[in-house]
Amino acid sequence: MTGTVTTSALASLQRNHLAALQQAYDEMLTRLGLDGVLLYSGHPRRHFADDQEASFAAYGHFMHWTGQVDLVRSWLLIRPGKRPRFKVHAPDDFWHLPASLPDEAWVTTFDIEMSRDDAPPTLPAGRFAVLGDVSTSLAEALGVDCNPAPLVGALDEGRVRKSDYEIACLHSANQQAMAGHRAARRAFLEGGAELDIQLAYLGASRQRETALPYASIVGVNAHGGVLHYQHYDTFPPARRRSLLLDAGHRHRGYCADITRTWAGPGADTAFASLIEGVTAMQQRLIEALAPGVDYVDLHQWMHLALGELLAEQDMVHCTPEAAVAQGITRAFCPHGLGHSLGLQVHDVAGRVDGAGRPLPPPERDPALRLTRKLEAGMVVTMEPGLYVIPMLLAPLKEGTAGRDIDWRLVERLADHGGIRIEDNVVITPTGYDNLTPPE
């Protein structure tokens, strides 16, 4: 499903997706003794003492049916054997454009009410649940269960493996995001500041800032060593050593999450070699993807491969195994190898097994967001990294590990920040397909 999909083919895939979703909900609701479930899209939060609202993204299980990220205060009623009932909040308003629905296949499969009020639809007799950002008082007034864990867990598990429709959407999101990455790289090499790079990204990927699935990380020089760097300098540095860009896109609710790192005209030659090494390491890790592979094992393999790279580039003077054992590799890469991807950037059910039992990350790797075995249909990110982060490396100086690190090389690279290379990959029955197009 990694090729371009025509509009008619996408409509067919979406109808199949919705039919399978209806069947899955029917089975889950019946098994749990429920006559239906209300899905609430959610609502934005106002800033304190203001009438301005924060950016908003709809509840994931609501988007699983509709793909609508921006619909606020809307309700979806799902019942076994019944057409979904969709109440869209569309008040008369001269301050804002009222909500409307797209010309997509899912619209014809729902009973739709465009409503001026945001009250939930009237429920028939029976036992119901409500999911989403709903107050306990409202749930009590409706006489329904609020976010019951067994139902939420079952629905989360249903999002772990993506349908062909979802994979097509993820592929489209990746295509748009990569167009932005190419433009951002050009802006960097032409001398742009972080803000210029972000604006180039938004323009080429055809999206506004509030539509991003997450705030772009645009780290020039040492800022690339701040894993979730959150600012955009408005003036370029005197010397452009590096750019780390972690930026995505949404298509029909589905997220791309791509990271690239580039050496600038002022880069140390060792940094360019490290980028090549991390890129090659990432490709080897991707080639190992297949059903049944334990993602925790892949994460451990990443650390061994990182130890090998550090030794090859003379940043450490010990064996790869010693670099891992002494905590050196974790100082150079403190985050996990990747995570599940879908309607949420860090998608649901990454740290439980198929029965909902917890699968906590290893004690040494608390940031690892995916701890289960891979299955066909999963979409995951693969994002090894290598960073020069002073606060993590400094504690190693006084111990045995400090004697194995080339501190002069570390100092040379400190103002380059770091390297992360991230692709989005779907697990197939026989291996994998990389959804991220080449640069």
The shape, in one word, is globular
CATH-level-4 superfamily name of the largest domain: Creatinase/methionine aminopeptidase superfamily
| Low-pLDDT windows of residues | none
Distance between the termini: 20 Å
CATH architecture of the largest domain: Alpha-Beta Complex
Number of domains: 2
- Rg is 24 Å
Number of helices: 12
CATH topology of the largest domain: Creatine Amidinohydrolase
- Category by helix and strand content: alpha+beta
Describe, in short, the structure shown.
Splits dipeptides with a prolyl residue in the C-terminal position. Helix content is about 35%, strand content about 15%. The chain has 12 helices and 14 strands.
Q: Please, could you describe this protein's structure?
A:
It contains 12 helices and 14 strands. With 439 residues, it is α+β, with helices and mostly antiparallel strands. It folds into 2 domains: 7-158, Creatinase/prolidase N-terminal domain (Creatine Amidinohydrolase, Chain A, domain 1, 3-Layer(aba) Sandwich), CATH 3.40.350.10; 164-434, Creatine Amidinohydrolase (Alpha-Beta Complex), CATH 3.90.230.10. Strands 4-3-2-1-5-6 form a 6-stranded mixed β-sheet. Strands 7-8-9 form a 3-stranded antiparallel β-sheet. A 3-stranded antiparallel β-sheet has the order 10-13-14. Strand 5, helix 3 (136-142) and strand 6 form a beta-alpha-beta unit. The model has no long low-confidence stretch (mean pLDDT 97).
Q: Main attributes?
A:
439 residues; alpha+beta; Creatine Amidinohydrolase, Chain A, domain 1; Creatine Amidinohydrolase; 2 domains; six-stranded mixed beta sheet; three-stranded antiparallel beta sheet; 12 helices; 14 strands; 16% strand
